[in-house]
Design brief:
The complex is a heterodimer of chains A (326) and B (351). With 326 residues, chain A is of the alpha/beta class. Chain A is 30% helix and 23% strand. In chain A, a hairpin with a 7-residue loop joins β11 and β12. In chain B, α5 packs antiparallel against α6. The chains are: A alpha/beta (326), B mainly alpha (351).
Chain lengths: 326, 351
């Protein structure tokens, strides 16, 4: 096995809850709690979880758009979490991001050409003419007409905007792209186009992706490996095939049950998760999922479960006290 | 300069709002005209042609001897009397001539040509009459307008620049800087502005600049509120995160991404801020704590009109009151139209 392109170790991101006249600290929102994961070169890691589980924060913290509270992030052996401004600037060439909202992720006052050119301008790639050529090349490669470079974002559809977002993220020739729900805001028919575009670039440019999504079917389509997040922690991680064939965590199973199916004959017995995701300020003791878990026993209410291998050598790990029992 | 399509659309919409647009044209016309007040109402001639040379007395001082005049008390260094000069030249019928402004009076010099003491009611000589010191009311109104507008615009511009800088810093830096500066602003804004200005004005005789400086101390605050929240909102939008994810510098973030998207409150508030500034300046002048006499100012004119001995001199009050109401109405109409044209809800995407 080659060495991973990205290693995340014990990453934490807490947001202080402040109040009072001078903003004294009242507590923490534990958005990301002790997360470790690896991304291999050329692979796609799908990161799944419901809204508010910290998956976007994890992506942003890995990018150092948010300062990590503690933990390590290494990209090709280079420390991202403690990189100086200058080192970080260089890391940005290899580490890019695609954003969720195709409406707010493009500055409404810049043209498409200017938006795609911006990373090249910031990193002073080549001469002005070379940058313009590169912009046209990028627009063409994501399936946009070159003549659209003088248009403004509001003249484009959601799918076209997201193509601009993809083109922009590719401008500097990155090695890893963190895609934060890149298709969630799009129509289903357009989702497929964007996903195919991303897969094509992965093949052509040997990219790695961290693909953040709450949509299991999308993740199943694009990922090689999958990590399931619940309330800031990864509760299950493993090869896509292993997880979809044999989900180990009750939460994963509940998520899979919730995926709608196309044909009534395929309908399964559903066990809907009751209740809401608990507050990240006061997470329940023990396993964070226990208040909603149909299998919870005493130990689940006291001890935080560790990620344990399911038995095979496929790297499939699950954080559940009752793993194998239920 | 390239105008981005959102701004272009807003400008087009502003043009379509007739009431505001025409108010804007009228006020802009008045303002442009008032910049040339010296050629509209002045004792000094615009051009004098004397013995085949041209003189431009609005730019240079010429004493009486230059044009062969003599002061009746025999003083040297007395400025030429161009109105009298015009009369003389006409009577001579020679090639010399004088081009006087439309209104041959300036806002300072009393007119002693009347039999009874000022104020004198409007007549052909003084269209709007003279005030209690015999000065031409029209000239004072005109120069007063120029001062009011210049003062209000400079006050608002300076205040908004400072307010934008402070507010942007609060929004951008956030954290401790924001908390402490916001507390400071809250305390500062509770100072009763008018009393502070009056208090200061009793110690220093204010000039145009010092009054501007004193009022700026309070004017900048309002803008910080808007800019602070605008920047707070915009900086969490994904286009800003995207720019940061390429390693955009702070300067780039602020000037290329944030500020252009935060200009709406600035533009929409400006007309109303100008209305406020004109009113406050007039109020201060009225109370006698504003610009020093004999500066022509609307507040001072109203003060004269309100004087008990001038109760029956109605022309003294009609002119400044009409001028103030019309000006404030025009600016308010402009402000209304701008607010409508810039309605952010038309472009915002709430997700």
């Amino acid at each position: 096995m080659s060495s991973p392109i990205l290693e995340v170790r014990d990453l934490r991101k807490y947001y202080p809850v402040r109040g009072g006249l001078f903003g004294g600290k009242r507590g923490d929102v534990k958005a990301v709690e002790s997360v470790s994961l690896d991304v291999e070169p050329g692979e796609t890691l799908g990161l799944v979880g419901e809204s508010g589980c910290g998956k976007s924060t994890l992506g942003r913290t890995v990018m150092r758009l948010e300062e990590p509270t503690s933990g390590a992030v290494r990209f090709e052996g280079r420390d991202v979490a403690h990189a100086s401004k200058r080192e970080l600037f260089e890391l940005r060439r290899d580490l890019q991001m695609i954003f969720q909202d195709p409406y707010s992720s493009l500055n409404p006052r810049l043209t498409i050409g200017e938006i795609v050119r911006e990373p090249l301008d910031i990193h002073r790639r080549g001469t002005h003419t070379e940058r313009l050529e590169r912009v046209e090349e990028l627009l063409e490669s994501v399936g946009l007409q070159v003549s659209w470079k003088d248009r403004y974002p509001h003249e484009l559809s959601g799918g076209q905007r997201q193509r601009v977002g993809v083109a922009r993220s590719l401008a500097l020739g990155p090695k890893l792209i963190i895609a934060d729900e890149p298709v969630s805001a799009l129509d289903v028919s357009v989702q497929g186009q964007i996903l195919n575009l991303m897969v094509r670039f992965q093949w052509e440019l040997e990219l790695s992706y961290i693909f953040i999504s709450h949509d299991l079917s999308v993740v199943e389509y694009i990922s090689d490996r999958v990590a399931i997040m619940y309330l800031g922690r990864i509760v299950e991680q493993g090869a896509k095939t292993a997880i979809f064939a044999n989900p180990g965590h009750p939460y994963t199973r509940a998520l899979m049950d919730a995926v709608p199916v196309a044909h009534p004959a395929q309908r399964r017995e559903r066990e809907p998760i009751s209740g809401e995701s608990p507050s990240a300020v006061n997470p329940p003791p023990g396993c964070a999922f226990h208040p909603r878990c149909p299998f919870a026993v005493d130990v689940c209410r006291e001890l935080v479960p560790e990620l344990e291998p399911t038995g095979g050598n496929d790297g499939h790990v699950v954080a559940c006290h009752r793993q194998g029992e239920v | 300069m390239r105008i981005d399509p959102i701004t272009r659309k807003r400008l087009r919409r502003f043009r379509r709002l007739k009431r505001g647009y025409y108010s804007f044209l009228i006020l802009a016309g008045f303002t442009a005209l008032s910049l040339f007040s010296n050629y509209i109402a002045n004792r000094r001639a615009i051009v004098v042609s004397y013995q085949d040379s041209l003189y431009f007395p609005t730019f240079r001082f010429h004493d009486m001897a230059t044009f062969g005049q003599q002061d009746e008390y025999g003083f040297d260094d007395v400025e030429a009397d161009y109105t009298a000069l015009q009369q003389t030249f006409r009577q001579d019928g020679g090639r010399n001539w004088v081009l006087m402004p439309l209104v041959p009076f300036d806002p300072y010099e009393p007119d002693f040509e009347y039999d009874h003491p000022p104020p004198n009611p409007p007549d052909r000589r003084h269209w709007f009459g003279t005030d209690s010191q015999g000065r031409d009311v029209f000239a004072r109104l005109l120069y007063g307008f120029r001062i009011s507008i210049l003062f209000a615009v400079s006050l608002v511009v300076v205040g908004e620049v400072i307010g934008t800088i402070v507010g942007s810093m609060q929004g951008f830096l956030g954290g401790r800087f924001d908390i402490f500066s916001q507390r400071f602003i809250e305390i500062w804004s509770t100072l009763p502005f008018l009393y502070v200005v009056i208090l200061l004005a009793t110690f220093f005789k204010p000039s145009f600049l010092s009054l501007l400086a004193i009022m700026t101390l309070f004017e900048w605050i309002r803008m910080t509120y808007y800019m602070r929240t605008e920047i707070y909102r915009e900086k969490t939008k994904e286009y800003c995160l995207a720019a940061r994810s390429f390693g955009a510098s702070r300067r780039r973030l602020i000037f290329r991404h944030l500020l252009p998207n935060c200009m709406t409150p600035l533009v929409t508030i400006t007309p109303f801020a100008i209305v406020g500034a004109i009113s406050v300046l007039t109020a201060l002048d009225y109370l006698g704590y504003g610009l020093p006499a004999p500066t022509p100012s609307w507040g001072e004119m109203i003060d004269q009109a309100m004087d008990s001995s001038n109760r029956d001199k109605i022309w003294l009050s009609v002119a400044p009151f009409t001028a103030i109401s019309v000006t404030l109405l025009l600016v308010t109409l402009i402000g209304e139209a701008i607010r409508e044209a810039f309605d952010p809800k038309q472009y915002a995407h709430y997700t």
